[in-house]
């Protein structure tokens, strides 16, 4: 039986051309009035997963 892609995870990550796996930071959906501009700007940036997480993600997404 073929391995299936985890569709929930697939929607939440981005794979770069070099193969790095990025995710969006949490905390930018509501209660933004009390957060500083700098903090909101930093939350907009994507972040790379740790090496341990990458190993786990590759099991859930066999086709990346």
Automatic annotation (TrEMBL):
Ranges in coiled-coil conformation: none
Pfam families: Ribosomal_L35p (PF01632)
Record's GO cellular component terms: large ribosomal subunit
Record carries keyword Ribonucleoprotein: yes
Alphabetized SUPFAM superfamilies for the sequence: L35p-like
Keyword list, A-Z: Ribonucleoprotein, Ribosomal protein
Listed GO MF terms: structural constituent of ribosome
GO biological process: translation
HAMAP family: Ribosomal_bL35 (MF_00514)
Family classification: Belongs to the bacterial ribosomal protein bL35 family.
Name of this protein: Large ribosomal subunit protein bL35
Natural source organism: candidate division WOR-3 bacterium
């Amino acid at each position: 039986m073929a391995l299936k892609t985890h569709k929930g995870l697939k929607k939440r990550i981005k794979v770069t051309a070099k193969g790095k796996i990025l995710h969006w930071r949490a905390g930018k959906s509501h209660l933004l009035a009390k957060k500083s501009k700098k903090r909101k700007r930093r939350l907009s940036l994507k972040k790379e997963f740790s090496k341990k997480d990458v190993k786990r993600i590759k099991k859930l997404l066999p086709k990346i």
